[in-house]
Amino acid sequence: MEIVTKYLGIHKEESTVALHYLNSDELAREYIFVNEKDAEDFYNTCKNLDEFMDQVPEEKREIYHNELLANLFKEKEYELNIYNALPEEDSNEELHKEI
Q1: Residues 6+ apart with CB under 8 A from 61
Q2: Entry pTM
Q3: Is 46 helix (H, G, I), strand (E, B) or coil?
Q4: SS3 sequence, 12-76?
């Protein structure tokens, strides 16, 4: 994973790009594109948005970043998977159920 900014890490592999917002409850947002060119464009756009994001209050950067990406790539075909960490109480509950 490449740490691009104070709030974002990115990993690209073939036609998949994973975004890791460092101050988020989400573990990752995984974008799976139909081709590698769209994934490369998305990856580069994510990195290049950092200059614009300097103008956005720090606590709103993740939200703005997501909104800008959604608008810039609304014409592209991709699948979005969002991975969340289980809250600690839920993960303990699951552990007790399995025992």
Answers
A1: 5, 7, 53
A2: 0.77
A3: helix
A4: EECCEEEEEECCCCEEEEEEEECCHHHHHHHHHHHHHHHHHHCCCCHHHHHHHHHHHHHHHCCCC
